[in-house]
Write a structure and sequence with these properties.
About 80% of the residues lie in helices and about 0% in strands. With about 100 residues, it is mostly helical. It is rod-shaped. It starts with a helix and ends in a 10-residue tail after the last helix.
């Protein structure tokens, strides 16, 4: 008897258009959030890479932070090759110690 009720409830939930609308909207929201994060990371990576390329060097700490906290997650989320090209340029920069003022 209880199994019949459970099966009926499951069928009603999965058969309802409201459930599938909720699933689709949830996926769209996640997709928009992912695109927003990719865009923010892309902007930050380009800004930092260009800054270091322009100054002609990068500190080891700055490189580690840029690579570990921005570029690697960006690439794993499906980021494009532009950031990768700039990171390759940054990798070739000479490393200097941070100068504190």
């Amino acid at each position: 008897m209880h199994i019949d009720i459970i099966v009926t409830l499951i069928a009603a939930v999965f058969g309802s258009t409201g459930f599938w609308t909720w699933v689709q909207n949830r996926n769209k929201k996640k997709s928009a959030e992912a695109m927003l994060l990719l865009g923010i990371a892309y902007d930050k990576i380009l800004w930092q890479c260009n800054k270091h390329i322009e100054q002609g060097y990068i500190s080891a700490d700055d490189y580690d932070d840029l690579n570990k906290y921005l570029f690697v997650p960006y690439r794993e989320m499906g980021g494009d090759g532009t950031a990768e090209k700039l990171m390759e340029e940054v990798k070739r920069l000479p490393t200097r110690k941070e100068v504190t003022e």
